[in-house]
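task queued by scheduler; priority normal; single chain, no ligands, no partner chains; default sampling; output format set to structure tokens
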Amino acid sequence: MNSNEMISFREDFETSLQCPICMEFFTSTIFQCDSGHSLCETCCGKISICPLCKSQIGKRLRNLLLEDQLTRLTIRCKFDNCGVLMKLNEKNSHELSCVHNPECHCILQHCKWTGHKSNLIEHLSERHKVPHYEIHGNTAEYSSRLRSANLQAAAGCVKLLHTFIRADKQPVTILTYIFLDSCKNLFYPQFRTIGEGQTRCNLRIWNIENEDSDEIVIEGTAFNQRVSLDDEREKKMCVIFDLESLISKFSFLDKQEKGHKLLHYRLTI
């Protein structure tokens, strides 16, 4: 095989590893139409007819052979100055969190900022005034105010950045975004990793005046994903609490009291 044939073979092979709709490399679950054309899970969920042959995709047939190949093939990160080699099925998650990504978008609502991934924390701190704390260890504690049960409803949010310096000296930065929607009477605790693919986390909430009182514990995973915080809430992809129930649980019981009560949070990774 001459050099031109080798180049043509490589290009044809790489094309076979890409979804024909979004043109992204396959990463995990791969479906195929009745004629055998492969499609990524995301695109397959949006259509019922194969764009290549017009066959039905309704049976949701898996391409297990190609899925297995994704775990064997390696590819290099597409961003300059990175050079990390990874399995093909890890490509999308790595490039999304890669610090060399020059096309990062702000994850806060209504913000059109785009820039280098390494500048995102600075952007959140300076443009959105999100407090940023460096924590040596794996636990951060902070407090916020919750209105009294007899006061008017009001929307608000808690926004914090914590960079945890772990025992292995590798930093993990998590954005905590707790949104209180008084119009829908809902309380949304949301998390994002910055510079990490995903991180397991645990958030404990209790009344700071009485640590022995009832508490709420949220266990989950903070992901580094493209979906905005707004979309995550709208699509119910995060934990959701009833706000009035939370207020009744933690706010002042004395109806003569005009004020707020402190809630205490402990975030652990």
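post-processing summary
- Confidence is low (pLDDT under 50) at residues 1-10, 253-257.
- The chain has two domains: 3-72, 128-268.
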